[in-house]
Structure prediction request, 489 residues.
Amino acid sequence: MTAKTANEKIIFGLKVKQLRQEQKLSFSDLSKTSGMSLSYLNEIEKGKKFPKQDKVKNLAKALGTTREELTDGKLGRHLAPVTQLLQSNFLNELPLELFGIELSKVADLIAQAPTRVGAFISTLLELSRSYALREENFYFAALRAYLELHDNYFSELEEAVEVFSQKHNLPGFRPVPPRTLGGVLESVYGYNIVPNGLDDHPDLQLFRSVYQPDGKRLLLNGNLTPGQRGFQFGKELAFNHLKLTERANTSSLLRSRVFEEVLNHSKATYFSVALHVPLHPFVESVQELFALPAWDSDAFLAVMRRFNATPEMFYHRLTNVLPKFFGLRELFFLRFMHDPATNDFTVDKELHLNRHHHPHENGLFEHYCRRWVSLSSLLDMSSSDSGELRIDVQRSHYYGTEDEYLCITLARTGYPHPGNNVSLTLGFLINDKLHKTITWLDDASITTRIVNTTCERCPITDCAERAEEPVIVRSREKYQRVKAALNEL
Prediction:
């Protein structure tokens, strides 16, 4: 008999348990009639063991069935969702090992209460279908959880950057010229770099680069700045130096096939950011910025420009070092996309450390609070000058809570293409640790505003920025009135 997969063992164990309970047999009863030990039967039902053919035959006879029926992989109508989940390969794609979870532990959970777990799984599958969730939605959610678990700092990747820099004699100064990194790709890894390789493909202009494995051709978007070009080279170097074979061939993930592809894309991004923004000089620069007597937007931008970093690279590096070296673990990052033509706002990237903070993406098609500095910066800025960069700072007090955040936003026009704008926001929960770390936190020039999540859920009555009526609030108020009336009766 060929070796069985973990999923096959789990299904077989559940089938044995199901038939044993239907026959009203105890472990002891089944042990006597099948000739198997109690411990071995227990391992079978937990999905850890799969007996040999002769024992399967004995077990089937003891359970009043045939070997074929016992091994057909079908669990019956009530456990159909469990069968569907296990046979879909979905559990194998989830990065359970990253969170210290063994597949056998999941099997134990299912085996303990298979009917209830089956009903729960059925509910999840129905919800996913209702909200059109695809596998990559789960992959990106798992990735965010993994990054948050590690405070978005990975010492092994920092060390890999140091090893790579020494191995290829990279200059100590930053930024490293793109031609230097491109030279390593060509001379060491045999790449053929095509500077304007995507210019003849208008439908591919949303990508910064496309990699063709055959011939190792790297097709670049002709509109890239030197910094963007160097960042793409850094990612390609990461795939090769870290030996990340499961990868997407586009600069950004269009649709992910497996979780490892999402994880490796994240590792390559981290590697490239760390390569361009070296750890210790960056930490020193941030320390100097936090020690200033007052908020200084020019000084904030100067740190970014010192390393010739794009806003995305700059904020990525901040989320790496702030928890690890400054002890600021309660923070969030959000990237908002804005289409001025429709005035639609969407969150396409987010990270929450230590807890799920108030501002976050929602799939409810509600209107985000326009008082957030993330949105007000986009609404205030002109969309006529492509490439314009704007910086804003705000203390945001969340309505109905004691939570207040220091929010620093960078916004620019013409991204990712003319007509659309983007804002990047880093928010810090204001607490004693933040007061001790940032000297200018109480600078009087920093505006304080009361904010909320979405207009539909906001009870603030005198909001001039409101984009939609508080329909959720009114619905709740109506329910409370109905409840009060019933109590009176």
